[in-house]
Amino acid sequence: MSEADTDSGSRAGREEVWIEKYRPQTLDEIVGQEDIVERLQSYVDRNDLSHFMFSGPAGIGKTTSATAIARELYGDDWRDNFLELNASDERGIDVVRDRIKNFARTSFGGYEYRIIFLDEADALTSDAQGALRRTMEQFSNNVRFILSCNYSSQIIDPIQSRCAVFRFAPLSDEAVAEEMRHIAGEEGIEFTDDGLDALVYAADGDMRKAINALQAASVTGDVVDEEAVYALTSTAKPEEIKEMVDQALAGDFTAARSTLDRLLTEEGIAGGDVIDQLHRSVWEFDLDDEAAVRLLDRIGETEYRITTGANERIQLEALLASVALDD
């Protein structure tokens, strides 16, 4: 191995993970959630936090907002006054009784309160949520809780009523594209317009997914283009999804099945991801409202069957067959 190859490998081994390197450190650095950031900033400015609940899909700023609040409140001491737990890993009642209560009981170095952040709180068991409710009452004088979840409906009402609820929406395409341009500029990466559009499409409002895709694509060539992005994210091109559905709508099931086979076999796209992309593209097909509603109904039925363990290929082929046979 040449010296240049050794240096290159050494640099690659020390390459930072970009989702951490470019994670916002303060609230005003968070993009795409301006209304929520403004409300959170008012709490921080008054140094008067209540219990918070952040709900919404992955990669849109929930965890980043929680850590940014702690950084602004505690400065360099934020790690000593901020306990982060992932409830999907530690979801039992013992976690609430032991780790959370022990943290809440300890001294807090002159600050009025400390923060406990429970990520993926919707994974907590019913008993653990009941214990958490009592803990929130018992230590409300010196601890503030921030709960993060994908589905707030999985959190019991007594906890929700004790929290100010912030519902984070998927990030807009413009917000994702702006951040991609910023990171590409910082890293000296060239990208094509199609490559940027592909990053935004593949991310579907998830900034973390977009940043990971950009970092992965940047090491595969000199320029980040559409082909690299779709290959690395296991995402079908929108035109491929449209081609498959158009073939089925035209009654050509064999051609539609062949396109599906290429997506699943040659491009390695998961059946669930094909369903997600179909759902996103329904209104882009040349369908009247009634036909679009029928297609959505079939997509929903297929998605349900796949998530309950049915064979992906069989269900997707059945979906295409029903579309092809539709009068």
What is the gist of this entry?
With 327 residues, this protein is an alpha/beta fold.
Class based on secondary structure composition and strand pairing: alpha/beta
How far is the N terminus from the C terminus? 64 Å
The CATH top-level class label of the largest domain: Alpha Beta
Oligomer: single chain
Radius of gyration: 24 Å
Plain-language structure description:
- The protein has 3 domains: about 20-165, Rossmann fold (3-Layer(aba) Sandwich), CATH 3.40.50; about 170-230, Helicase, Ruva Protein, domain 3; about 240-325, Zinc Finger, Delta Prime, domain 3.
- It is built from 16 helices and 7 strands.
- It has helices at about 5-15, 20, 35-45, 60-75, 95-105, 125-140, 155-160, 175-185, 195-205, 205-220, 225-230, 240-250, 255-265, 270-280, 290-305, 310-325; strands spanning about 50-55, 80-85, 115-120, 145-150, 165, 190, 225.
- A 5-stranded parallel beta sheet has the order 2-3-4-1-5, sandwiched between helices. Strands 6-7 form a two-stranded parallel sheet.
- Helix 12 (about 240-250) crosses helix 16 (about 310-325).
- The longest helix is centred in the C-terminal third of the chain and has 19 residues, at about 290-305.
- It starts with a helix and ends with a helix.
- Mean pLDDT is about 85; it is low at about 1-15.
Task: Fill in the keyword field for this structure.
327 residues; alpha/beta; Rossmann fold; Helicase, Ruva Protein, domain 3; Zinc Finger, Delta Prime, domain 3; 5-stranded parallel beta sheet; two-stranded parallel ribbon; 7 strands; 57% helix
